[in-house]
Amino acid sequence: MGEQTRELISSLDGGARLDATMFERIINDCDSDDLAFAMKRANAKRKEQFGDEIFIRGLVEFTNYCRNDCLYCGIRRSNQQVERYRLTAEQIMECLEQGYSAEIRTLVLQGGEDTYFNDARVCALVSEIKSRHPDIAVTLSIGERPYESYMLFREAGADRYLLRHETATEWHYAKLHPSSQTLASRMECLRNLKALGFQVGCGMMVGSPFQTAACLAQDLAFIQDFRPHMVGIGPFIPHKATPFANESAGTVEQTLLMLSLVRLMHPKVLLPSTTALATLHPGGRLKGIMAGANVVMPNLSPLSVRGNYTLYDNKANTGLEAVEGLAALSRELDTIGCTISKGRGDAPA
Ligand code: SAH
How far apart are CA 154 and CA 336, in angstroms? Predict the structure, then answer.
């Protein structure tokens, strides 16, 4: 068993293309020794590409209003228990300045699909950030919009866009979303973003309800073909006010395996060690890096609203993942020989 799994992992490491069946075999057969093997290879790959440097992104969760109703998400439209908030442009600029002083050179604006933030308002935010600090990269993560909107965002100066595909398997997508949201539309958005010249991030939750090994294998095959610049991968964690309240969370191990395989297939990819992974396990963030991740995203949102951007239960929000924790994060990274990069951290060509 172990030998075959390791052969497949090694061939991925050597640049081979695997098909979904092979990925599925790895996922099904992977034991703890195989995982350690994959992580070791992936960590070496990360070092080869990026040395000791870990990129940081300041995350501003600027609105939790959402018109969508994703069954897994704590800020879905149907959740009436969450207190809704939306930051003012002024508050967002304060987050920017705080991040800028902390030497953060990428700002990620993430939010629910909030219709208040129409194209004009989003463009105004992006232009304002860029005119204050031309050396900062702006990443948007605000869901699905028409091609024309993405084009305006790009023209306003946005550099990157995160839009997880969530799952590349049609029937699974339909289990996680209402029928008004389709995989086809998500995929079209991803293609549009790429065509417009954004650095694009896709990604999925690990261990989401109904997910099978075949689903994850499909995700990996999609990521292999799509060649995104960034991939967001974190464990699914249930939220108490969603239909998935009683489902179990994804595992640290399976998340680490996915990170490793993505690093091996795309050596240059920007791969965050996610807050969800850190939420599941105190050592999660470092483990993610040791599985090939090279990005962390400290939270820059004002403390007063952080507790309301609750995508899932117990979301970590004041520890090393927060901007106040940068010095501590730096010390933590030091224990595995890594340092925080001061650059924008664009995807290498
Ligand atoms: N509205 C934006 C941003 C979504 S929130 C968009 O549609 O892209 C960012 C990510 O959080 C989602 O893509 C999803 O993968 C993740 N997420 C949502 N609920 C989650 C949960 N319960 N557990 C783990 N991750 C979750």
Answer: 37
